[in-house]
Structure formats: structure tokens, C-alpha cells
Amino acid sequence: MRNPPEIPAAFVRQMEHWLGAEARDLVAALSAKPWRGLRYAAIARPRGELPPSLAPFLSGGVPWAADGFYLAPGPSLGYTVLHQAGAFYLQDPSAMAVAVALDPQPGERILDLCAAPGGKTTHVALMAARRGGAQLVANDVHRDRVLALAENVERVGAPCAITNESPAALADAWPQAFDAIVVDAPCSGEGMFRKDPAVRAEWRPDAPERFQVLQKDILRHALTMLRPGGRLVYSTCTLNPLENEQVVLWLLDHYPVALEPLPDWPEWRPARSDWAADREEVGLAKRLWPHVGRGEGHFVARFRLLDPVATSPRRRSKAATPSTDKAWDAWLASLVAEVPPAWRKTVARKSVVFADALGDLAVSSLRVLRPGPPIAERKGQVFVPHHAASRLLPPGGFRATVEIDEETAIRYLAGEPLALPAGHDHEATFCAVAHEGFHLGFAKRAPGRLNNLYPRGLRSTRIESLAALAAEVDSSSYT
Ligand SMILES: C[S@@+](CC[C@H](N)C(=O)[O-])C[C@H]1O[C@@H](n2cnc3c(N)ncnc32)[C@H](O)[C@@H]1O
């Protein structure tokens, strides 16, 4: 096996310039093991908890994220039943600071502008769901990455719309449309050096300068989409002040924005005003340094927009109309115990019926990957539940549910049919399949068995049992 690439010497020189002797501690920390974390993620059960079967893998809570936990050194949990079921999201503990900084409020309309693969989107969605819900749009400019975003959003049941656009195109369509926007910007990724050797290999000495140009361009457009009084969270996973304090300074100098205080966690250090023309308020932004706290490198700042940046009136699209299709209404009633309010307005595109998450946002000129969570597909004259819909409702939300043990769930995720459980006398054609109260997908009733509707593209024969993985946990400390 090849050794991971060294920490780039030019990076070390740059950080010595900024940090002086402290750079040594930083470089030493970047050569140690990364901190790993996971976050409770099942949005349909926003007040739920991680099941006890995950306890052997956890080593304490992340102080700033109510749903976040450190993972003990050991195996990856990506190929487990509970991960596939969207019970949790694997996330760097420092990255959990971003949704916390945004602090989503009930009923807000929120845009995550650089959202793929979805760590912050799904965290914002969970926090919002806990507070009664928000309207969420997640965007990413890259076509391949936006598909990974959709997969993660669907896995955890985040009820958001997804677009695949440039910030400029969105800004043109959605002036002053949002109460809050997250710009988790593309960056030189220095904070990820110990977690991801590929980032070290790709880093170039001029990366901070180049990314700063891109970050300003994205922020320029983001601000025009924010209503006056709205909040903008700017974050990066890099360390260089060119992409952090100096971008903050540029925003303060060029736009009617004010920085807001963030929570005062000891592991969140004030950003350095001395790297931003000694502007004291820059210290309200926070740095999560890899050599200070238990997580990778992150930067986060929250701004309040004081005056509008764009004044053109908001364009409205025709609101989605509630379905009046009787066949659809009857089918839905046969699937769910009670139709959730968010499913009353639907949008049909090709053969898929989506819950409408765009409301009056104009989308005619935009690439919309999904206008909201998919609920069903029309196949000929009949509807079939969309796999993603299984994640949208809590236990008991579907008329029929079959709870299966882990061994059976592993076979279900590989695509095998299920035996009809003894006593399963429900007549519903479709039933949800659940493990430990988390919905995995759907099955269709057939004589003597349940046919597996878990999508072919998601099926996997690599899923491992938690008991087997627990034996690999290293209970010694990180360092
Ligand atoms: C740091 S990553 C976002 C991580 C994501 N927020 C999460 O938590 O999973 C930055 C994202 O910005 C996107 N991006 C790159 N260039 C962009 C641009 N010009 N405009 C908008 N987004 C861009 C990338 O595709 C990438 O997914």
C-alpha cells in the first residue's frame, strides 16, 4: 500500500507565515488520526434517538451538536443496515458547526447553495424538522455531485427540493427569496488534510488565492437571494485566512451585512481579526482548528443582511395545485394512515409524483433535479410508492409495516424477497419494511411472500452486521 502524500511543504510555509511557532502544533495534528463522527439523521422521527445497537461504536457526544457523536476508532459504519435506513449520517464533528450556526427557525425558507453531498443540508433539515419544519432548497452546480446529494437527502428523508444550477442562474430567478442561506463554499480543503489524503495531493500553493475569487463570486450571488434581515452562513473546511477572515472582511466592506455572535464553545476559537485589518468584529466568526479541538479544520461566520442587495421584485410561479385526481387520492389513502400536509400539493414530472417543496419559487428557467421529495411513480395505469417516500414518514405512518431483524434486513437490502410474516393479515398492496423502527423501503404483497421493492441501484451485498463490526472497535484513545 502506498504511503499517503506528505503535508505539502508550501502549505507548511504558508501556515508558518500566519501562525508562527503554532504552525508546528498544527502540522503535527494534521499527521495524526482524524476525528470521526456521526449524527442522528432520521428526519421523519426528528426527536428520535440512535438505537442501542450503535452504542459500542460511540465515544461521547459532540458538545455543539445535540445529535452528534464521536466514533471510537474502528470500522466504517457506511455499509450497515441502519446507515442504509438513514438512521445516521457520517460527518466530521467540526462540520456539524454549520447547521448549528445557521440555527434554522420554524417556517423559514432556506437555501443551501453549495450542498453536495448533503452533510449540512441534512443537518439543517433535521434541526428544522425538530422546530416544526422549514422550506428547504438544496443546490449544487456539479452534475455528478448533485446526484450524491439527492441520494443522501432521500436516504435520511429530508423533504427538500434539489436544483443543479450556478449561483448566478439562481440569483437571477430568486431575488430576495430566502430567509437564510448557507454557503459552504468550495475551498482549498486544508482542514481535511488528515482525513482525506487526496486533498493533500491536489492542493497547490495558489489554491487559496484561486478559491477566494470563486468564493466571492458565489457570495455576491447569494446575497441577492437573501431578504433584508435574513441570515447568511459562510463556511469553509480550509485554514488559510485568504479564504476565511479575508473573505469576511471583503463582505463587511462591500455589502450591508453585520457579523453575528456564534455559540461560545471552548473548541470554537474566535477568527483572527489581526488577519483582517484588525477589524474587531471579525472575531465573531469562529475557527475550529485541528490542533485545538476534536474535529477537522473548519471556519464558520454568520451575517445578517441589513439592507436589500437586489431590489427587483420576486417573480412568482404558479403555485402547485393540490391533486384533484381521484385515482391518486384513493391510492394515497390506501398507502398512508393520514396524508401528511406536505403531500397535499404535488407536482408530476414524467412518471414521478413529487410533494411540492418549491412553493412560489419560479423555476421555469432552472435545472430542477427534484421539486420536492418523490412520493410515487406511475407505472401504466397504477401507482407504485417511490422508494424515497418510505423515509418521509415515522413508524406507523404507512397503513402496513413489516418490522424485520438485522439478518433479514441484510437480505432485503441485497434484493431478496421477504417471507410473509406469520399473522400478516393486512390487505394493503404495499407495505413499509422497517428495522428498529427505521423504514428501509417498501415491499409488495404477493401470494405467500412480499416482493422486494428496494431499488436495484441501491441494492448491496456488502452490508455487515453491527455485532460483527463491534468486535473491530478499538477502545483505546485517538492519539
Ligand atoms: C465544501 S463542498 C460542500 C459540502 C456540503 N455542503 C456538505 O456539507 O456535504 C462545496 C461544494 O460547492 C460546489 N461548487 C463548486 N463550485 C461551485 C460554484 N461555482 N458555485 C456553486 N457551488 C460550487 C461543489 O460542487 C461542492 O459540492
From TrEMBL:
Q: Signal sequence: where?
A: none
* One GO MF term attached to the UniProt entry: methyltransferase activity
The taxonomy runs: Bacteria, Bacillati, Bacillota, Bacilli, Bacillales
Give the family this protein belongs to, as stated in its UniProt record. Answer: Belongs to the class I-like SAM-binding methyltransferase superfamily. RsmB/NOP family.
Please list the GO biological process terms of this entry. methylation
CDD domains associated with the record: AdoMet_MTases
**Which annotated residues bind S-adenosyl-L-methionine?**
C114, A115, A116, P117, G118, G119, K120, D140, D184
Cross-referenced Gene3D superfamilies, in alphabetical order? 2.30.130.60, Sun protein, domain 3 (3.30.70.1170), Vaccinia Virus protein VP39 (3.40.50.150)
Catalytic positions are C237 (nucleophile)
Keywords from UniProt, A to Z, are: Cytoplasm, Methyltransferase, RNA-binding, S-adenosyl-L-methionine, Transferase
Q: What is this protein called?
A: RNA methyltransferase
* Top-level taxonomic group: Bacteria
Pfam families to which the protein is assigned, alphabetical: Methyltr_RsmB-F, Methyltr_RsmF_N, Methyltranf_PUA
- Any idea where the SAM-dependent MTase RsmB/NOP-type domain is? 26-306
Q: Does the keyword Transferase apply?
A: yes
> Which organism is this entry from?
Alicyclobacillus sendaiensis PA2
